[in-house]
Amino acid sequence: QLQLVESGGGLVQPGGSLRLSCAASGFTFGGSGVGWFRQAPGKEREAVACISSNGDLRNYVDAVKGRFTTSRDNAKNMVYLQMHSLKPEDTAVYYCAAGHIPCGLVEIDYGSWGQGTQVTGST
């Protein structure tokens, strides 16, 4: 079993930056792909980005492409989501998830989930 904990959320002005962290515990982290998802109030959960186990493959949805970057440090059991040029529509609870798919952008690809961290891009 793999446990994940998100941190780094907060309130940021539009155009600002924020870095989310996903801390993992377990022996298989280095072999797991990781996805980032978000859910805004009243909306369905949606994919944001993903990164393969060795970091070679990364994908982003169009809504965040060019603004968000995900990376990982397997020696520290950490995955990061660096967010720039934040918009009000980025406001959501952000989740990280781990699974066996190298880099998936669908929820069903992931079996282990964190509990989320709130990101608010507003004045």
Quote the distance from N terminus to C terminus: 40 Å
Shape: globular
Q: Please bin the fraction of helical residues.
A: under 10%
Mean pLDDT, as a whole number? 96
**Major sheet size, sense and barrel closure:** 7 strands, mixed
One letter per element, helices H and strands E, the order comes to: EEEEEEEEEEE
Assembly category: single chain
* Contiguous runs where pLDDT drops below 50 for at least 5 residues: none
Strand residue percentage: over 45%
**Number of E-type strands:** 11
Query: So how many helices?
Result: 0
Going by helix content, strand content and strand pairing, the class is mainly beta
Task: Give the radius of gyration.
Answer: 13 Å
How would you describe this protein?
The protein is mainly β and 123 residues long. The protein is 0% helix and 48% strand. The chain has strands spanning 3-7, 10-12, 18-25, 33-39, 46-51, 58-60, 68-73, 78-83, 92-99, 112-113, 117-121. The strands form two sheets. Strands 2, 4, 5, 6, 9, 10 and 11 form a seven-stranded mixed sheet that branches. A hairpin with a 4-residue loop joins strand 7 and strand 8. It is globular, with a radius of gyration of 13 Å.
In short:
This protein has strands at 3-7, 10-12, 18-25, 33-39, 46-51, 58-60, 68-73, 78-83, 92-99, 112-113, 117-121. It has 123 residues and is an all-beta fold. The radius of gyration is 13 Å and the shape is globular.
